[in-house]
Amino acid sequence: MTADDAHKPAELVRAFLANLQKAALTSNDQHSFEWRQEARQLRDRILTADPAALARLKIDGLWWLALTDAETPELRPEEGQIEFGQPKRCPFTLVEIAAPDFDVDQAVNRLLKSAATG
What we know:
globular
């Protein structure tokens, strides 16, 4: 995400979803922790974004872009938790992401359970 995109709700949500996916893909505990932390920070920023702008987002499209961001050749050696095989529709809604009880660790576990096993 570039500095110009840092305040755009679509880019925040896309980066958030990509970090959840990276955390689910990797078998490296330290990297998974780092991506979970980044997801938490991005979620905090999403919560302060313009609600009207968030409401206009197409979460399934952002999900597919996020998968592309997460499943890069550079990260291939670390993938050991799951293989490519996430659902076509985003497993989270914007309402869920913005809910006070949203838990990043549970979200990563949800991705692990919804994907093909590695």
